[in-house]
């Protein structure tokens, strides 16, 4: 049986100085510190290496209530797509990462899943819109 190219690995197995992470470090103040905390805490992420790192998906489990956002979150089990980055080269890696997220949500009985996306992330927005439109056929 062929081993899946996407692996679930500890942050500590990854190199924060890898070129793959430069855009995240540039875009998100404190990303490097956050990454190092996750590494020390033993957190894991889904990655694709081809052989260079070309995909990274971190999922976070939440149960908190948050009334400071709209729509507000009541207390329930949520699966948050914490970090989602791919270097797309005409592959379906983005769709595979969405599939991993939804499979995890269903298998582990989460009530919701969500992602925070910023306006400048046009390709990621397009990916989620494409996936959403596929679900309404």
Structure explained in plain terms:
The protein has 137 residues and is of the alpha+beta class. 32% of the residues lie in helices and 25% in strands. The chain has a five-stranded mixed sheet with strand order 1-2-3-4-5, with helices on one face. Strand 2 (44-49) and strand 3 (53-62) form a beta hairpin. The radius of gyration is 15 Å and the shape is globular. The mean pLDDT is 86.
Give me the number of helical elements.
Answer: 4
- Gross morphology is globular
Distance between the termini: 33 Å
Main beta sheet, described?
5 strands, mixed
How are the strands of the largest sheet arranged? 1-2-3-4-5
Secondary-structure-based class equals alpha+beta
CATH arch. level architecture: 3-Layer(aba) Sandwich
CATH superfamily: Gcn5-related N-acetyltransferase (GNAT)
Would you spell out the secondary-structure blueprint of this structure?
Blueprint: E1 6-10, H1 22-27, H2 31-40, E2 44-49, E3 53-62, E4 78-86, H3 93-107, E5 112-115, H4 122-134
Parallel strand pairs: 4-5
Antiparallel strand pairs: 1-2, 2-3, 3-4
Q: Short summary of the structure?
A:
The protein is of the alpha+beta class and 137 residues long. The protein is built from 4 helices and 5 strands; from the N terminus they run βααβββαβα.
